[in-house]
Design brief:
- The chain is α+β, with helices and mostly antiparallel strands and about 100 residues long.
- It folds into two domains: about 30 residues; about 60 residues, High-Potential Iron-Sulfur Protein, Chain A.
- The protein is built from two helices and three strands, in the order αβαββ.
- Strands 1-3-2 form a three-stranded mixed beta sheet.
- The protein binds iron/sulfur cluster.
- The site of iron/sulfur cluster (SF4) has 13 residues, from loops.
């Protein structure tokens, strides 16, 4: 009886772990590069190459992910990736 419960628990937790792993992989794969013509991007004047010297997505407080990546998630554009050398009018210097 105890063994069965333990086995069921292991099966369940293994399945949940696989589900969570696949879930995060598919979320990453689904994050597309932000299109500057996207209405929100256009409203915030997003550009793949920053027109403002010294202000880039990679040094903005809203950028996420790891340093050194060409494309990174941004808190302002959920589900999209922005260019590390890009910029938009919401830029604020990372502390
Ligand atoms: S808020 Fe704008 S400048 Fe900052 S990371 Fe996002 S897109 Fe780049």
């Amino acid at each position: 009886m105890k063994d069965i419960k333990r086995r069921d628990f292991l099966k369940l937790s293994g399945g949940a772990l696989i589900g969570m792993t696949l879930g995060s992989v598919s979320l990453r794969a689904a994050a597309e590069e932000l299109d500057p013509s996207d209405p929100t991007a256009a409203a915030l004047k997003y550009a793949k190459v920053s027109p403002v010297e010294g202000a880039y997505c990679e040094n903005c407080m809203f950028v996420q992910g790891e340093d050194g990546q060409e494309l990174r998630p941004c808190a302002i554009f959920p589900g999209k990736q922005v260019a590390a050398k890009g910029w938009c009018s919401a830029w604020a210097k990372k502390a």
